[in-house]
Protein backbone atom coordinates (compact mmCIF):
# COMPACT_ATOMS: atom_id res chain seq x y z
CA UNK A 1 0.00 0.00 0.00
CA UNK A 2 1.36 3.42 -0.94
CA UNK A 3 2.74 5.45 1.92
CA UNK A 4 3.03 8.68 -0.04
CA UNK A 5 1.38 11.88 1.20
CA UNK A 6 -0.87 14.36 -0.54
CA UNK A 7 -0.61 18.07 0.04
CA UNK A 8 -3.45 20.30 1.24
CA UNK A 9 -2.92 23.99 1.92
CA UNK A 10 0.80 23.38 2.30
CA UNK A 11 0.39 20.54 4.79
CA UNK A 12 0.80 16.83 4.13
CA UNK A 13 -1.81 14.17 4.85
CA UNK A 14 -2.20 10.48 4.13
CA UNK A 15 -4.54 9.94 1.16
CA UNK A 16 -5.49 6.62 2.74
CA UNK A 17 -7.10 8.55 5.54
CA UNK A 18 -8.45 11.80 4.13
CA UNK A 19 -8.71 13.87 0.96
CA UNK A 20 -8.61 17.51 -0.10
CA UNK A 21 -12.37 17.33 -0.74
CA UNK A 22 -13.08 16.03 2.76
CA UNK A 23 -10.78 18.57 4.41
CA UNK A 24 -12.51 21.36 2.49
CA UNK A 25 -15.90 20.06 3.63
CA UNK A 26 -14.75 19.78 7.25
CA UNK A 27 -13.52 23.35 7.25
CA UNK A 28 -16.42 24.96 5.39
CA UNK A 29 -19.39 22.63 5.50
CA UNK A 30 -19.29 20.66 8.74
CA UNK A 31 -21.91 21.91 11.20
CA UNK A 32 -20.67 22.00 14.76
CA UNK A 33 -23.39 21.64 17.41
CA UNK A 34 -23.38 23.50 20.70
CA UNK A 35 -23.15 20.29 22.70
CA UNK A 36 -20.29 18.73 20.70
CA UNK A 37 -17.19 17.81 22.68
CA UNK A 38 -13.91 17.86 20.75
CA UNK A 39 -10.81 15.91 21.71
CA UNK A 40 -8.03 17.74 19.86
CA UNK A 41 -4.39 16.72 19.83
CA UNK A 42 -1.25 16.75 17.78
CA UNK A 43 -0.61 13.07 16.90
CA UNK A 44 0.90 10.85 19.60
CA UNK A 45 0.05 13.21 22.44
CA UNK A 46 -2.51 11.08 24.28
CA UNK A 47 -5.44 11.09 21.84
CA UNK A 48 -6.76 7.61 22.50
CA UNK A 49 -6.18 8.02 26.22
CA UNK A 50 -8.47 11.07 26.17
CA UNK A 51 -11.02 9.14 24.09
CA UNK A 52 -11.14 6.53 26.82
CA UNK A 53 -11.45 9.11 29.59
CA UNK A 54 -14.22 11.02 27.81
CA UNK A 55 -16.14 7.88 26.83
CA UNK A 56 -16.07 6.75 30.44
CA UNK A 57 -17.03 10.14 31.86
CA UNK A 58 -19.95 10.43 29.43
CA UNK A 59 -21.08 6.92 30.39
CA UNK A 60 -21.09 7.89 34.07
CA UNK A 61 -18.15 5.54 34.72
CA UNK A 62 -19.85 2.49 33.18
CA UNK A 63 -17.18 0.70 31.07
CA UNK A 64 -19.67 -1.19 28.88
CA UNK A 65 -19.40 1.27 25.96
CA UNK A 66 -15.60 1.37 25.96
CA UNK A 67 -15.41 -2.42 26.20
CA UNK A 68 -17.81 -3.11 23.35
CA UNK A 69 -17.34 -0.34 20.77
CA UNK A 70 -14.00 0.56 19.11
CA UNK A 71 -12.65 3.98 20.03
CA UNK A 72 -12.85 5.23 16.43
CA UNK A 73 -16.63 4.72 16.54
CA UNK A 74 -17.07 6.14 20.02
CA UNK A 75 -15.17 9.31 19.16
CA UNK A 76 -14.52 9.43 15.39
CA UNK A 77 -11.68 11.40 13.83
CA UNK A 78 -13.41 14.36 12.18
CA UNK A 79 -11.10 14.49 9.17
CA UNK A 80 -11.07 10.75 8.41
CA UNK A 81 -13.06 9.09 5.64
CA UNK A 82 -15.24 6.97 7.89
CA UNK A 83 -16.06 9.69 10.42
CA UNK A 84 -18.62 11.72 8.49
CA UNK A 85 -20.96 8.80 8.09
CA UNK A 86 -20.62 7.84 11.76
CA UNK A 87 -21.12 11.44 12.90
CA UNK A 88 -24.35 11.85 10.94
CA UNK A 89 -25.94 8.80 12.55
CA UNK A 90 -24.50 9.22 16.02
CA UNK A 91 -27.37 9.22 18.47
CA UNK A 92 -25.41 9.96 21.63
CA UNK A 93 -25.68 13.45 22.95
CA UNK A 94 -23.29 15.08 23.12
CA UNK A 95 -21.33 13.96 20.06
CA UNK A 96 -17.74 13.11 20.96
CA UNK A 97 -15.37 14.03 18.15
CA UNK A 98 -11.62 13.57 17.82
CA UNK A 99 -9.35 15.62 15.59
CA UNK A 100 -5.69 16.24 14.91
CA UNK A 101 -6.44 19.27 12.74
CA UNK A 102 -4.59 22.52 13.36
CA UNK A 103 -6.92 25.34 14.36
CA UNK A 104 -6.86 27.06 10.97
CA UNK A 105 -8.31 23.95 9.26
CA UNK A 106 -10.99 23.36 11.92
CA UNK A 107 -14.70 23.77 11.02
CA UNK A 108 -15.51 27.46 10.66
CA UNK A 109 -18.90 26.83 12.29
CA UNK A 110 -17.09 26.10 15.57
CA UNK A 111 -16.54 29.84 16.11
CA UNK A 112 -20.25 30.55 16.57
CA UNK A 113 -20.96 27.51 18.72
CA UNK A 114 -20.59 26.70 22.40
CA UNK A 115 -18.91 23.37 21.61
CA UNK A 116 -16.14 22.45 24.03
CA UNK A 117 -12.54 21.68 23.10
CA UNK A 118 -10.21 19.59 25.23
CA UNK A 119 -6.70 20.07 23.89
CA UNK A 120 -4.15 17.55 25.11
CA UNK A 121 -0.50 18.40 24.65
CA UNK A 122 2.58 16.29 25.37
CA UNK A 123 6.28 16.96 25.66
CA UNK A 124 7.10 17.12 21.93
CA UNK A 125 10.26 15.07 22.38
CA UNK A 126 8.16 12.18 23.68
CA UNK A 127 5.50 12.73 21.01
CA UNK A 128 8.24 12.50 18.39
CA UNK A 129 9.60 9.25 19.84
CA UNK A 130 6.09 7.78 19.95
CA UNK A 131 5.59 8.91 16.36
CA UNK A 132 8.86 7.29 15.31
CA UNK A 133 7.70 3.89 16.55
CA UNK A 134 4.14 4.29 15.27
CA UNK A 135 5.23 5.41 11.81
CA UNK A 136 7.22 2.22 11.42
CA UNK A 137 4.07 0.21 12.09
CA UNK A 138 1.40 2.00 10.04
CA UNK A 139 0.72 2.70 6.38
CA UNK A 140 -0.85 6.03 7.32
CA UNK A 141 2.63 7.46 7.80
CA UNK A 142 5.67 7.26 5.58
CA UNK A 143 8.44 5.01 6.73
CA UNK A 144 10.36 7.46 8.93
CA UNK A 145 13.79 6.24 7.79
CA UNK A 146 16.18 7.03 10.59
CA UNK A 147 15.24 8.76 13.84
CA UNK A 148 17.50 11.63 12.72
CA UNK A 149 15.50 12.02 9.51
CA UNK A 150 12.17 12.09 11.35
CA UNK A 151 13.58 14.60 13.83
CA UNK A 152 14.50 16.94 10.97
CA UNK A 153 11.06 16.54 9.36
CA UNK A 154 9.35 17.12 12.71
CA UNK A 155 11.32 20.31 13.35
CA UNK A 156 10.46 21.71 9.92
CA UNK A 157 6.85 20.53 10.13
CA UNK A 158 7.22 18.25 7.13
CA UNK A 159 4.97 15.57 8.64
CA UNK A 160 1.21 14.95 8.58
CA UNK A 161 -0.69 17.69 10.42
CA UNK A 162 2.31 19.97 10.08
CA UNK A 163 4.46 21.56 12.71
CA UNK A 164 3.95 20.67 16.37
CA UNK A 165 4.98 24.23 17.24
CA UNK A 166 2.36 25.79 14.95
CA UNK A 167 -0.29 23.36 16.20
CA UNK A 168 0.27 24.25 19.85
CA UNK A 169 0.64 27.97 19.17
CA UNK A 170 -2.49 27.98 17.02
CA UNK A 171 -4.73 26.18 19.50
CA UNK A 172 -3.49 27.94 22.63
CA UNK A 173 -4.01 31.29 20.87
CA UNK A 174 -7.79 30.70 20.80
CA UNK A 175 -8.06 29.41 24.35
CA UNK A 176 -10.00 32.45 25.57
CA UNK A 177 -12.32 32.66 22.56
CA UNK A 178 -13.97 29.29 23.04
CA UNK A 179 -14.79 26.83 25.85
CA UNK A 180 -11.30 25.32 26.04
CA UNK A 181 -9.47 23.06 28.46
CA UNK A 182 -5.74 22.49 28.19
CA UNK A 183 -4.58 19.13 29.53
CA UNK A 184 -1.09 17.71 29.41
CA UNK A 185 -0.20 14.06 28.93
CA UNK A 186 2.22 14.46 31.82
CA UNK A 187 -0.49 15.60 34.24
CA UNK A 188 -2.65 12.63 33.23
CA UNK A 189 0.31 10.41 34.12
CA UNK A 190 0.96 12.17 37.40
CA UNK A 191 -2.59 12.47 38.66
CA UNK A 192 -5.19 10.71 36.54
CA UNK A 193 -7.96 11.04 39.10
CA UNK A 194 -7.33 14.75 39.64
CA UNK A 195 -7.29 15.27 35.88
CA UNK A 196 -10.58 13.38 35.48
CA UNK A 197 -12.15 15.63 38.12
CA UNK A 198 -10.87 18.71 36.26
CA UNK A 199 -12.30 17.40 32.97
CA UNK A 200 -15.64 16.63 34.66
CA UNK A 201 -15.77 20.19 36.01
CA UNK A 202 -15.09 21.59 32.56
CA UNK A 203 -17.84 19.42 31.05
CA UNK A 204 -20.26 20.22 33.85
CA UNK A 205 -20.57 16.54 34.80
CA UNK A 206 -20.72 15.33 38.35
CA UNK A 207 -19.52 11.81 39.04
CA UNK A 208 -19.69 10.19 42.46
CA UNK A 209 -16.58 8.58 43.97
CA UNK A 210 -17.38 5.09 42.63
CA UNK A 211 -17.91 6.40 39.09
CA UNK A 212 -14.65 8.35 39.31
CA UNK A 213 -12.83 5.22 40.47
CA UNK A 214 -14.24 3.34 37.52
CA UNK A 215 -13.14 6.01 35.01
CA UNK A 216 -9.62 5.90 36.43
CA UNK A 217 -9.46 2.11 36.60
CA UNK A 218 -10.66 1.70 33.01
CA UNK A 219 -8.38 4.35 31.58
CA UNK A 220 -5.10 3.02 32.99
CA UNK A 221 -2.33 1.97 30.63
CA UNK A 222 -2.76 -1.69 31.59
CA UNK A 223 -6.55 -1.78 31.15
CA UNK A 224 -6.37 -0.02 27.81
CA UNK A 225 -3.57 -2.25 26.58
CA UNK A 226 -5.76 -5.28 27.29
CA UNK A 227 -8.94 -3.73 25.83
CA UNK A 228 -9.28 -4.67 22.18
CA UNK A 229 -11.66 -1.72 21.67
CA UNK A 230 -8.77 0.58 22.56
CA UNK A 231 -5.56 -1.22 21.58
CA UNK A 232 -6.06 -1.41 17.78
CA UNK A 233 -5.83 -5.19 17.64
CA UNK A 234 -9.13 -5.14 15.66
CA UNK A 235 -7.47 -3.20 12.83
CA UNK A 236 -6.05 -5.09 9.86
CA UNK A 237 -2.33 -5.79 10.09
CA UNK A 238 -2.00 -4.24 6.63
CA UNK A 239 -2.94 -0.89 8.13
CA UNK A 240 -1.28 -1.04 11.53
CA UNK A 241 1.16 -3.84 12.22
CA UNK A 242 1.23 -4.08 16.01
CA UNK A 243 4.11 -6.56 15.86
CA UNK A 244 6.32 -3.73 14.62
CA UNK A 245 5.16 -1.45 17.43
CA UNK A 246 2.15 -1.69 19.73
CA UNK A 247 -0.12 1.37 19.61
CA UNK A 248 -0.24 1.42 23.38
CA UNK A 249 3.51 1.11 23.65
CA UNK A 250 5.27 2.40 26.80
CA UNK A 251 3.01 5.08 28.19
CA UNK A 252 5.71 6.98 30.07
CA UNK A 253 7.20 10.44 30.04
CA UNK A 254 10.89 10.89 29.29
CA UNK A 255 11.37 8.04 26.81
CA UNK A 256 13.02 10.68 24.59
CA UNK A 257 16.14 10.28 26.74
CA UNK A 258 16.50 6.77 25.32
CA UNK A 259 16.37 8.03 21.73
CA UNK A 260 17.92 11.51 21.46
CA UNK A 261 21.66 12.08 21.31
CA UNK A 262 22.92 15.08 23.25
CA UNK A 263 23.31 17.03 19.98
CA UNK A 264 19.77 16.17 18.87
CA UNK A 265 18.39 17.22 22.24
CA UNK A 266 20.26 20.53 22.15
CA UNK A 267 19.10 21.23 18.62
CA UNK A 268 15.51 20.45 19.61
CA UNK A 269 15.76 22.72 22.66
CA UNK A 270 17.07 25.59 20.55
CA UNK A 271 14.20 25.30 18.06
CA UNK A 272 11.73 24.92 20.93
CA UNK A 273 12.97 28.09 22.67
CA UNK A 274 12.79 30.00 19.43
CA UNK A 275 9.35 28.77 18.33
CA UNK A 276 7.63 28.76 21.73
CA UNK A 277 8.80 32.18 22.84
CA UNK A 278 6.03 34.16 24.59
CA UNK A 279 3.56 31.29 24.47
CA UNK A 280 0.46 32.37 26.40
CA UNK A 281 0.36 29.20 28.56
CA UNK A 282 2.95 27.50 30.73
CA UNK A 283 3.63 23.92 29.73
CA UNK A 284 4.65 21.56 32.49
CA UNK A 285 7.93 20.34 31.01
CA UNK A 286 9.24 23.92 30.51
P1 LIG B 1 4.07 5.88 23.64
O1 LIG B 1 4.27 5.48 22.22
O2 LIG B 1 5.08 6.85 24.13
O3 LIG B 1 3.92 4.71 24.56
P2 LIG B 1 -2.01 8.92 20.58
O4 LIG B 1 -3.20 8.28 21.14
O5 LIG B 1 -2.11 10.42 20.51
O6 LIG B 1 -1.64 8.32 19.26
O7 LIG B 1 -0.80 8.70 21.58
C1 LIG B 1 -0.28 7.41 21.76
C2 LIG B 1 0.62 7.46 22.98
O8 LIG B 1 -0.22 7.51 24.17
C3 LIG B 1 1.47 6.20 23.11
O9 LIG B 1 2.68 6.66 23.72
C4 LIG B 1 0.64 5.35 24.06
O10 LIG B 1 1.35 4.35 24.71
C5 LIG B 1 0.15 6.43 25.02
N1 LIG B 1 -1.01 6.00 25.81
C6 LIG B 1 -2.20 5.52 25.39
N2 LIG B 1 -2.98 5.19 26.43
C7 LIG B 1 -2.28 5.47 27.55
C8 LIG B 1 -2.53 5.33 28.96
N3 LIG B 1 -3.68 4.84 29.43
N4 LIG B 1 -1.55 5.71 29.82
C9 LIG B 1 -0.39 6.22 29.37
N5 LIG B 1 -0.09 6.36 28.05
C10 LIG B 1 -1.02 5.99 27.16
Short note summarizing the structure:
The protein is α/β, with parallel strands linked by helices and 286 residues long. The chain has 13 helices and six strands. The protein has one domain (6-275): Rossmann fold.
Explain what this protein looks like in three dimensions.
The chain has 286 residues and is α/β, with parallel strands linked by helices. It has helices spanning 20-28, 47-58, 64-68, 71-74, 83-89, 124-137, 147-156, 164-173, 185-190, 192-203, 209-218, 221-226, 262-275, and strands at residues 6-8, 11-13, 37-41, 96-99, 116-121, 180-184. The chain has a four-stranded parallel beta sheet with strand order 4-3-5-6, sandwiched between helices. The chain is globular and about 50 Å long. The N and C termini lie far apart (40 Å). Adenosine-3'-5'-diphosphate binds at residues 41, 43-49, 126, 130, 133, 219-221, 224, 248-251, 255.
Features:
alpha/beta; binds adenosine-3'-5'-diphosphate; two-stranded antiparallel sheet; 286 residues; 6 strands; Rossmann fold; 9% strand; 4-stranded parallel beta sheet
Helix and strand topology:
Layout: E1 6-8, E2 11-13, H1 20-28, E3 37-41, H2 47-58, H3 64-68, H4 71-74, H5 83-89, E4 96-99, E5 116-121, H6 124-137, H7 147-156, H8 164-173, E6 180-184, H9 185-190, H10 192-203, H11 209-218, H12 221-226, H13 262-275
Parallel strand pairs: 3-4, 3-5, 5-6
Antiparallel strand pairs: 1-2
Amino acid sequence: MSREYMSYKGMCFSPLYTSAELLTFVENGFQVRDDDIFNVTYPKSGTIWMIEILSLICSGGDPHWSRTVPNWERMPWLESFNAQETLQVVSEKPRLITSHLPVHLFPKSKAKSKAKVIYTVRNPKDALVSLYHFSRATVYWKDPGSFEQLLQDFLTGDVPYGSWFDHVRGWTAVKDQTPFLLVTYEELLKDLRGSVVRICDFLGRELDAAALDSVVENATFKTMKDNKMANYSLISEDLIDLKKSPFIRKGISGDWKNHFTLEQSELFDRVYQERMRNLNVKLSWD
